[in-house]
């Protein structure tokens, strides 16, 4: 299996065949155990491309795919949304008035119907937030130069078919709410577990 770079990842986004990505890190022991299994599987499964991507080299791609720990295996197929991630960062708390719930899609796979009222706000040097200029609804979060576009889960018509995968920036959560679910909680947008 080939270890791909950002350019190769972007090229795979237009692939008609499903793509399986093994998100790994060179320091990760379980990644080294999983790799030969996926290598063998890639030779047995027709019509699916198998590749590897180093999360330390490409954290923006890992984040766009909802990777919160390694190893993580993701299959890209046209039109699929990433599971919902709850973000407790201070910007989300202030922007949404509460923690945020985002899914994500690959930007190149998004087909815009209308952007007439879409406005963007540069929330930092690295990111911007999209909102409706008419009603003020928060709609998007985008890492500048990243491959994915985070979409507020509440802005998608039901039934969404989505499920929650975990919490990020949990260290910043406010004192007025409790999180009682058993989903993984991460200190930042990383694989570092937040201590309970």
Q: Short description, anyone?
A:
The chain is of the alpha/beta class. The chain contains 4 helices and 11 strands; from the N terminus they run E-H-E-H-E-H-E-E-H-E-E-E-E-E-E.
| Secondary-structure element series | EHEHEHEEHEEEEEE
Structural class: alpha/beta
Which outline best applies?
A: globular
Please compute the radius of gyration using only Cα atoms: 17 Å
End-to-end Cα distance, whole Å, is 37 Å
Give the helix level as a range of percent: 10-25%
User: Helix count?
Assistant: 4
**Number of beta-strand segments:** 11
Looking at CATH, which topology of the largest domain would you report? Metal Binding Protein, Guanine Nucleotide Exchange Factor, Chain A
Mean pLDDT: 86
- Please state the oligomeric state of the protein chains shown: single chain
Strand percentage, roughly?
Answer: 25-35%
Name given to the CATH architecture of the largest domain:
Beta Complex
pLDDT < 50 runs, ≥5 residues: 191-196
Write the layout of secondary structure elements.
Elements: E1 2-3, H1 6-12, E2 19-24, H2 29-44, E3 49-54, H3 59-64, E4 72-76, E5 84-87, H4 90-96, E6 100-106, E7 118-121, E8 127-132, E9 138-143, E10 148-152, E11 164-168
């Amino acid at each position: 299996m080939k270890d791909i770079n950002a350019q190769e990842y972007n090229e795979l986004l237009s692939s008609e065949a499903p793509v399986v990505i093994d998100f790994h890190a060179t320091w990760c022991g379980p990644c080294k155990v999983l790799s030969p299994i996926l290598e063998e599987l890639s030779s047995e499964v027709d019509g699916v491309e198998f590749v590897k991507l180093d999360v330390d080299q490409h954290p923006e791609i890992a984040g766009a795919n909802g990777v919160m720990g390694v190893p993580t295996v993701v299959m890209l197929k046209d039109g699929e949304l990433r599971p919902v991630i709850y973000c407790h960062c201070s910007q989300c708390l202030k922007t949404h008035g509460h923690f945020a719930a985002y899914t994500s899609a690959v930007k190149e796979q998004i087909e815009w119907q209308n952007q007439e009222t879409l406005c963007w706000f540069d929330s930092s040097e690295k990111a911007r937030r999209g909102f409706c200029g008419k009603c003020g609804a928060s709609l998007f979060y985008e890492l500048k130069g990243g491959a994915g576009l985070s979409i507020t889960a509440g802005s998608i018509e039901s039934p969404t078919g989505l499920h929650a995968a975990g919490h990020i920036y949990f260290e910043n959560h406010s004192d007025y709410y409790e999180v009682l679910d058993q989903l993984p909680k991460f200190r930042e947008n990383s694989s570092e577990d937040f201590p309970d």
